[in-house]
Amino acid sequence: MKKHTIDYVNQFRRNDYNASIDSMNAHGLQINDRDFVGWDFTPWVYDLYRPNEPYEARGICPTFLTSEEY
Fold it and tell me: If phi over 0 gives left and psi between -120 and 50 gives alpha, with beta otherwise, what is residue 3?
């Protein structure tokens, strides 16, 4: 688990990170097709402090234009 967490955080430093996000956007044009928490570290930390809050309680992001926004 520790290695996975470190790799997750370090992925943003990789040279191919933007290409990876572009690839995900190409395969997930509908909200239901996208990774619900996205590839942003912020939602992961948000969840650590709210372990009992259902994802549905967040609602849909009002500016949900790309998968990296939520």
Answer: alpha
| Residue 32: count of CB within 10 angstroms of its CB | 6
Question: Quick check: 60 and 31 in contact, CB under 8 A?
Answer: yes
SS3 43: helix
- Report whether pLDDT(21) > 70: yes
CA distances in angstroms from 29 to 16, 44, 67, listed in the order given: 21, 22, 8
Q: Phi and psi at residue 26, in whole multiples of 5°?
A: -65, -30
pLDDT in tens, 39-52: 555 667 777 888 89
